[in-house]
Amino acid sequence: MASEAAFFLGQFLRSPVTTGAIMPSSRYLAAAVATPILERGDPVVVELGPGTGPFTAEIQRRLGGRGRHIAVEINPRLARRLAERHPQVELVVDDAARLPHLLAERGVPAADVIVSGLPWASFTAGVQARLLDAVLRAMRPDGAFTTFSYAHARPLAPAIRFRHRLHAAFEEVVPGRTIWRNLPPAFVYHARRPRAAPVT
Ligand SMILES: C[S@@+](CC[C@H](N)C(=O)[O-])C[C@H]1O[C@@H](n2cnc3c(N)ncnc32)[C@H](O)[C@@H]1O
């Protein structure tokens, strides 16, 4: 656990904007982002920015061998570690902004659930728009999208901008309760019913 935290911190020091956090999320936050994964069926679950894999482990546990779990990680060092730990996950080392193309290459028309670990508040307006547009284009109309935000960042401009984008992109956006057993405390956005128009 200590070495995992140290490894993750090392990735933050190398690429602070892309990594966006100094330590991996807790299992409590992981449980909250994975709630749309139901106990039945064979869903296609896409995970964006798995890092060292706290959300990955929870998604795998909930799937219990059902469906497909495709994870897209841009950092090859994090991806290598994730692949060792979760060989059963279909790991793609690429930019999540290419998600519709990545799914098409794998014969997947659309995702049922997209779970994001991306650090939205670190991103510029342009990067936020590109990534959210990719999410909208890659999910089923009846699909679910979950993502998290740090509670302390809620009043900051990039977080506000992302919240507005999220409301523009989905008909339903419900913020969850603050998860205090995460460092730093965080909350989850549960989004459904993507609007047809791309985010600009
Ligand atoms: C805040 S960390 C979260 C890691 C993990 N999900 C967790 O909660 O501990 C953000 C992760 O997103 C990855 N990432 C950032 N931008 C990305 C992009 N455009 N495409 C795919 N992964 C990206 C980073 O490399 C990092 O692993």
TrEMBL record:
**Keywords assigned by UniProt, alphabetized:** Methyltransferase, Transferase
**What range(s) does the Methyltransferase domain occupy?**
45-143
List the Pfam families: Methyltransf_25 (PF13649)
> What domain of life is recorded for the organism?
Bacteria
Q: Give the GO biological process terms.
A: methylation
Metal-binding among keywords = no
| Name recorded for this polypeptide | Phospholipid N-methyltransferase
Specify the signal sequence span.
Answer: none
The record's annotation in InterPro entries points to: Methyltransf_25, SAM-dependent_MTases_sf
Q: Which GO terms describe its molecular function?
A: methyltransferase activity
